[in-house]
Structures are given as structure tokens and as C-alpha cells.
Design goal:
alpha/beta, Rossmann fold, seven-stranded mixed β-sheet, two-stranded antiparallel sheet, 9 strands, 28% helix, binds S-adenosylmethionine
């Protein structure tokens, strides 16, 4: 892995991006601060550093993408992250979303179905000084050993909300998950009111890569 270097040029590009996200409706100051602080170009191959601060998704290998900064900010804002929150992420991908959550003081458990991506994210996040708990596997089954989670974030498009994830959400916890078909999804916020009661709120429309697994799309 190349040396990680951040400088005024990238910091300035992040300030511009954060201003753009605020105009697009991201209001949570903690989310905007984390996006200002985490160098997104570290998650890109060096030749594409110049694209890191465009508000766009970008390929990361294995047919997957690092989500658009607006999408990362949007999902994080829905979660109302508080310092010390225990968060389960499904779809580690590049590790950028996990870095944003950890920058906000959360403890992150993240599952990725592509081993190569999981290993690459582990190396990078460690080098950046973060300490996530990562695993390679099918995230639609959650991670029962570490449940319950205060917050759950699914960063791939699901056909339904996986039951295992509802079960592993703490009472009072929030899950954010895009639900729909393989082309487009509606962002859904799931709030666990009690052991047997959830409230679901449908939000805006997005387009994610598919969530593939036992309680996701069967490919
Ligand atoms: N959060 C990522 C980031 O910050 O770069 C972006 C993730 S990308 C949009 C979605 C990821 O979900 C892909 O890396 C994909 O391999 C992964 N994925 C899809 N189905 C999965 C599953 N059942 N379990 C774990 N990861 C899954």
C-alpha cells in the first residue's frame, strides 16, 4: 500500500464537498465534520485521487463501488450516531463508511462478502489508526455473537429487511437499509420500539449494488 498523504489541496476539496453536501440537505454537524476529517482519496487508487472529492460513487474492484459521499452522509445522518454506539455495517466495501462511523466515535463491526475487499479495507483502516472488527461472510445473517447493536447500516440494496438484522437490533436502536428491486431502492429507517414492535419510515430513492445472500438477493 502506498504512503498515505493528505495536504491542503485535499483538505480544501473536502471543505468544498462538505459545503455541497450541506446544500443538498445534510444538516448533522457531526456527519459533516467526519466527512471533513476522513481523507476519501485514501480509499481510491492513486491514479484516481483527483476523483475522490466529486460527489459520485466509484468502482473499487469485484464489481463493487465506494458509495457517493451524499449517500454515505445521508445514511449516517439517519442513524443519529452517538459516541460509543455499537454499529453493525453490512457491506464493508472500501471501508470508507466504516471510517466515517468510527471518526464519529462509534465502535464498528462490518461484514463484507468479497474477501479481497475485506482484507484491503482491514489493511487501510488499520494504517489510518482505526480499529474496526471486520469479517468476510454473508451479512444478511448479521453477527449474532456481538448482538445487540445500537445501530445497523446496510450499504447494499435489499429485497426486504432481513429478519436476522431486526432481531439483532437493540431496543431503541435504528437501522438504515435501502429496500427495493435491483435497479432502485427506497431508503428505509427501521426503529425497534420493543422486542416485538418496529416502526419503519420510508425515505428517499437511491440506487445501490445488490445485497446478495441468504436473506438478500439469491445470485
Ligand atoms: N460501505 C462501502 C464503502 O464505504 O465503500 C460501500 C459498499 S458497496 C456500495 C456494497 C458492498 O456490499 C459491496 O462491497 C458488496 O460486496 C457488499 N455486499 C453485498 N451483499 C453482501 C452481503 N450479503 N454481506 C456482506 N456484504 C455484502
Amino acid at each position: 500500500m502506498p504512503m498515505l498523504t493528505d495536504d491542503y489541496k485535499y483538505k480544501g476539496a473536502r471543505t468544498k464537498l462538505v459545503t455541497e453536501l450541506a446544500t443538498k440537505g445534510i444538516q448533522d454537524a457531526g456527519v459533516l465534520k467526519a466527512l471533513q476529517l476522513v481523507p476519501r482519496h485514501y480509499f481510491f487508487p492513486k491514479t484516481f485521487y483527483s476523483h475522490a472529492y466529486e460527489d459520485k460513487a466509484f468502482p473499487i474492484g469485484e464489481g463493487q463501488t465506494i458509495s457517493q459521499p451524499y449517500t454515505v452522509a445521508y445514511q449516517t445522518q439517519v442513524l443519529h450516531i452517538e459516541k460509543g454506539d455499537k454499529v453493525l455495517e453490512i457491506g464493508t466495501g472500501s471501508g470508507y463508511q466504516a471510517a466515517i462511523l468510527m471518526q464519529m466515535g462509534a465502535t464498528v463491526y462490518s461484514i463484507e462478502r468479497h474477501q479481497a475487499l475485506s482484507l484491503k479495507a482491514a489493511t487501510l483502516l488499520h494504517k489510518m489508526g482505526y480499529k474496526p472488527v471486520l469479517k468476510h461472510g454473508d451479512g444478511t445473517k448479521g453477527w449474532p455473537q456481538f448482538a445487540p447493536f445500537d445501530k445497523i447500516i446496510v450499504t447494499a440494496g435489499a429485497p426486504v429487511v432481513p429478519q436476522a438484522l431486526i432481531e439483532q437490533l437493540a431496543i431503541g436502536g435504528i437501522m438504515v437499509i435501502p429496500v427495493g428491486n435491483e435497479q432502485k431502492q427506497r431508503m428505509v429507517s427501521v426503529i425497534k420500539k420493543s422486542a416485538s414492535q418496529i416502526e419503519t419510515i420510508e425515505l428517499d430513492q437511491f440506487a445501490f449494488v445488490p445485497l446478495i445472500g441468504e436473506q438478500g438477493w439469491q445470485h
